Amino acid sequence: MKYGITVSTYETSFGPIIYRDGKLKQNIAEMSQLGYDGVDLFVNRKTDEELLEIKEMFREGNIEINTYLPFFWQKLASSFRKSMAISV
Known about the structure:
Blueprint: E1 4-8, H1 24-34, E2 38-43, H2 48-60, E3 64-70, H3 74-87
Parallel strand pairs: 1-2, 2-3
C-alpha cells in the first residue's frame, strides 16, 4: 500500500491541504521521513523553471506527484462569484 498526503506550494487556509504553510523543502523532508510515497500538489502561479525545481525537490525526496492541482484560478473564481452575486 502506498501513502499519500496533500501539500501546497503557497500558504493557504484551504481545508483538505495538510501541509499548507508553503514551506515546501521542509515539508518534503518531513513527508519523506514519515514514509509518504506521493502527494496531491496544490500550486499557485509558477514559471516553468519554478515547476521544474519543485519537481526536482520531490524527486530528491523520493515522493511522487500523483495529482497536480493548479489553484491560480481562485482569484478568477472569486471575481466570478462576485459578478454572479451582483447580477442575481
